[in-house]
Amino acid sequence: MTTKRIISCLDIKNGRTVKGVNFINLIDAGDPVELAQKYEDQGADELVFLDISATLEERKTTLEMVTKIAEQISIPFTVGGGITSVEDAHLVLKAGADKIAMNSSAVKKPDLINELAKKFGRKSIVIAIDAKQIDGEWMVYTSGGNISAALNLFDWAKEVENRGAGEILFTSMDHDGTKNGFPIEALKRLATNSNIPIIASGGAGNVQDFIDAFQIGQCDAALAASVFHFGEINIKDLKTTLKNNNIDVKL
């Protein structure tokens, strides 16, 4: 049985953690360094840091913040936002990240996935895919959910796997921040057609949502933000409940 992971996400803008609904109406959620420490203390398996405005603002990830967080935590740490080259990835990893995440730059330059996997190993490469349903079909969006990539979610997921991605972080824009549950059917389709781990993101509202993501959606990890940021779910309590539901997690 594969051990399932609980991942806390820090969406960063202007040096602060923010959270919205459907990628808009962002509100402040706290200091990134303090939250990172809190989540490690609660038992999060990993932390994801996404500099959500880096691509739109045409700048690189805030390395100083990455370093500060990396110095305070020991759990695996993924960083994304504004990574557009091998050199960018090198700097992020050098700053203390264990993995790098890409979305827009992977769509614009798919060969970059191959280059990064060859240089750093596929275990260090997470491809983030933001998608929403358009006329019943899951379509990929880039630049913080602002630009249609004209790509089908499942086709793109298979391509990034073939190019060397080590994991896929799938965020449903339709479910993001709604707390109405993860996109279970889309997750299940991704998981059953992939040979790499699928991370569920977008929609966590209660403990049952996580149970469903693992048991029905068959994902390898579940990521959440607002329910952790605002104290609605304690990670330690969540993992205890998952364990009681025969889901293998690290306590």
What keywords describe this structure?
single chain, 251 residues, alpha/beta, TIM Barrel, eight-stranded parallel beta barrel, 12 strands
Beta percentage is: 25-35%
Helix amount: 25-40%
Task: From the alpha carbons, calculate the radius of gyration and give it in angstroms.
Answer: 16 Å
Q: Topology as H/E string? A: EEEHEHEHEHHEEEHEHEHEHH
DSSP, total strands: 12
Strand order of the largest sheet: 1-4-5-6-7-10-11-12
| The CATH class | Alpha Beta
Helix count, DSSP H or I runs of 4 or more residues: 10
- Shape summary: globular
Number of domains: 1
Q: In angstroms, what separates the terminal alpha carbons?
A: 15 Å
Structural class category: alpha/beta
Return the average pLDDT rounded to an integer: 90
CATH fold naming:
TIM Barrel
Largest sheet: 8 strands, parallel, barrel
Poorly predicted residue ranges: none
Q: By CATH's scheme, which homologous superfamily applies?
A: Aldolase class I
Identify the CATH architecture: Alpha-Beta Barrel
